[in-house]
Amino acid sequence: MSTNLSDTERGQDDKQQTSSLASAASAGGRAGDKIFSGLSLGAGIVIFVMLAAVAAFLTWQAAPVVGIPASSVTGGNGFFSYVYPLVLGTLMAAVIALLIATPIGILVALYISHYAPAKVAKPVGYVIDLLAAIPSVVYGAWGMTVLSPALAPFYNWLSETFGFIPLFAGPASATGRTMMTAGVVLAIMILPIITSLCREIFIQTPQLHEEASLALGATRLEMIRQAVLPFARTGIISAIMLALGRALGETMAVALVLSTGGLQWSLLTSGNNTIAAEIALNYPEAFGNRLAELIAAGLMLFIITLIVNLIARTIIARYQEFSGAN
Amino acid sequence: MSKRIDVEHLNVYYGDFLAVEDVNINIEPRSVTAFIGPSGCGKSTFLRTLNRMHEVIPGAYAQGKVMLDGEDLYGRGVDPVTVRSMVGMVFQRPNPFPTMSIRDNVLAGVKLNNKKISKSDSDALVESSLKGANLWNEVKDRLDKPGSGLSGGQQQRLCIARTMAVKPDVVLMDEPCSALDPISTIAIEDLIHELKEQFTVVIVTHNMQQAQRVADKTAFFNIEGTGKPGKLVEYDDTATIFQNPREKATEDYVSGRFG
């Protein structure tokens, strides 16, 4: 006990003697630095562990699919012919949603960041953020009961006029509950993601670069093309990827809107299905081999997402040197 | 081409706040004019009215006349975009576009005004502009590398090349050397001497030695106190301003007895 005390006292003496260079504050700061770097490393590891755990779970649960005879798989022709229409359906819905939402999202974000007076920009921004907070089941119900019947006559006209294009081949669905409608609903759902992320990035364009462009005689549009969009390129791609992630994985809205069925190239007829909706609709009653099939389909979705993200990283890396980060 | 600038009764506002009051000044073509004065006296604000960059800030506007060879920049139906392609500007901090190569940076302004430019024409323009900015020898082997990879002084000369490529009548410089080391500063000052042969140059500077080194004429701006508008106190030949000024305020400022 007494030795402990004297140790402490000596420690205090040491501190006082060396306080000019190695002060207590900086020692604490160094310890804080170590703790913080440990914490952030830990957080990074958690992400990897979770990803690996999900992949392992999916692979383990889906493994039985390999042993099932082809005739016993749903559809009777093996797992591949069961899953590829679902993969295509998932991609179709996501692509339609992105094609619609990306240009609109970027335009709305530009309006808020560079065109609208401050009085208008704020409320518009809030409304957009609010759209993101609406549960997807509400979008699904709205898409099924309101949007689908409203679009049906338009689909009819589209198939009569542009029916020679396979994507618009008739006869159009009378209910309007088609892949196209699902894509439109998804587009509305991912619009807020694209808009609010892009807005944040556009606002952060350095004033220096905007003024450089204007001082060269650029109009506002030219300034946006010269200074704002190139600067935001990486961020726009990230925003689209996040939106794509939601579109690929969205379940309820598609399950409610789409009148599911086999693979159809026409977007205007009923049919098609997505992986997420297929799982949601069938999972509650599935067991044994059927369960393994559904989880294997989920694994496909996981792989698609990984591939898409890898592509996005590659695109971003190509512009690295000119990103303005150096 | 080089044009003269005549400013008559110019008042500059930020919203309701009068920032610069009643400036009258005549700037000769093919000359270098320096604006000096304490911080916040409105010299940069006034400079930015000469190419209508001032009004980029929300709520900011100017009243009065700024004549470029007799044509009022604030006249009815005058497009600020046109004004800015005639009156170029170099900023305090070098601001090449980070997303563009050195070559594309030089051509940035040209591509706005004249979208169709042949490869040989653009090559010639890049070379002549970079030579004009005394940068060609340093970057000719890496024109396709990003402009943001250059040193600060090189970036600033790249910005000057970018401005020259548009072939403006006037070049405005807003403290172009304040972020640069002395060697780069001298490179820019040498360049200003050469620019004078082609352009009317107006430069804002906090460095009074610099004003004496580069400027033919010098304008002293001052402010009476916070919340008061900035005013043009005295405008004369640089030698007169620094050795024999008319106004007491000017003398106090240039001799360092200010504040």
Automatic annotation (TrEMBL), chain A:
<comment type="similarity">
    <text>Belongs to the binding-protein-dependent transport system permease family. CysTW subfamily.</text>
</comment>
<dbReference type="Pfam" id="PF00528">
    <property type="entry name" value="BPD_transp_1"/>
</dbReference>
<keyword id="KW-0813">Transport</keyword>
<keyword id="KW-0592">Phosphate transport</keyword>
<feature type="transmembrane region" description="Helical">
    <location>
        <begin position="291"/>
        <end position="312"/>
    </location>
</feature>
<feature type="transmembrane region" description="Helical">
    <location>
        <begin position="124"/>
        <end position="142"/>
    </location>
</feature>
<dbReference type="InterPro" id="IPR051124">
    <property type="entry name" value="Phosphate_Transport_Permease"/>
</dbReference>
<dbReference type="GO" id="GO:0005886">
    <property type="term" value="C:plasma membrane"/>
</dbReference>
<feature type="transmembrane region" description="Helical">
    <location>
        <begin position="184"/>
        <end position="203"/>
    </location>
</feature>
<dbReference type="InterPro" id="IPR011864">
    <property type="entry name" value="Phosphate_PstC"/>
</dbReference>
<keyword id="KW-0812">Transmembrane</keyword>
<keyword id="KW-1133">Transmembrane helix</keyword>
<dbReference type="InterPro" id="IPR035906">
    <property type="entry name" value="MetI-like_sf"/>
</dbReference>
<dbReference type="InterPro" id="IPR000515">
    <property type="entry name" value="MetI-like"/>
</dbReference>
<protein>
    <recommendedName>
        <fullName>Phosphate transport system permease protein</fullName>
    </recommendedName>
</protein>
<feature type="domain" description="ABC transmembrane type-1">
    <location>
        <begin position="87"/>
        <end position="312"/>
    </location>
</feature>
<feature type="transmembrane region" description="Helical">
    <location>
        <begin position="82"/>
        <end position="112"/>
    </location>
</feature>
<dbReference type="GO" id="GO:0006817">
    <property type="term" value="P:phosphate ion transport"/>
</dbReference>
<keyword id="KW-0472">Membrane</keyword>
<comment type="function">
    <text>Part of the binding-protein-dependent transport system for phosphate; probably responsible for the translocation of the substrate across the membrane.</text>
</comment>
<dbReference type="GO" id="GO:0005315">
    <property type="term" value="F:phosphate transmembrane transporter activity"/>
</dbReference>
<feature type="transmembrane region" description="Helical">
    <location>
        <begin position="39"/>
        <end position="62"/>
    </location>
</feature>
From TrEMBL, chain B:
<keyword id="KW-0067">ATP-binding</keyword>
<dbReference type="InterPro" id="IPR027417">
    <property type="entry name" value="P-loop_NTPase"/>
</dbReference>
<keyword id="KW-0547">Nucleotide-binding</keyword>
<dbReference type="GO" id="GO:0005315">
    <property type="term" value="F:phosphate transmembrane transporter activity"/>
</dbReference>
<dbReference type="GO" id="GO:0016020">
    <property type="term" value="C:membrane"/>
</dbReference>
<dbReference type="InterPro" id="IPR003593">
    <property type="entry name" value="AAA+_ATPase"/>
</dbReference>
<dbReference type="InterPro" id="IPR003439">
    <property type="entry name" value="ABC_transporter-like_ATP-bd"/>
</dbReference>
<dbReference type="InterPro" id="IPR005670">
    <property type="entry name" value="PstB-like"/>
</dbReference>
<dbReference type="Pfam" id="PF00005">
    <property type="entry name" value="ABC_tran"/>
</dbReference>
<feature type="domain" description="ABC transporter">
    <location>
        <begin position="5"/>
        <end position="248"/>
    </location>
</feature>
<dbReference type="GO" id="GO:0005524">
    <property type="term" value="F:ATP binding"/>
</dbReference>
<protein>
    <submittedName>
        <fullName>Phosphate ABC transporter ATP-binding protein</fullName>
    </submittedName>
</protein>
<dbReference type="InterPro" id="IPR017871">
    <property type="entry name" value="ABC_transporter-like_CS"/>
</dbReference>
<dbReference type="GO" id="GO:0035435">
    <property type="term" value="P:phosphate ion transmembrane transport"/>
</dbReference>
<dbReference type="GO" id="GO:0016887">
    <property type="term" value="F:ATP hydrolysis activity"/>
</dbReference>
<keyword id="KW-1278">Translocase</keyword>
<keyword id="KW-0813">Transport</keyword>
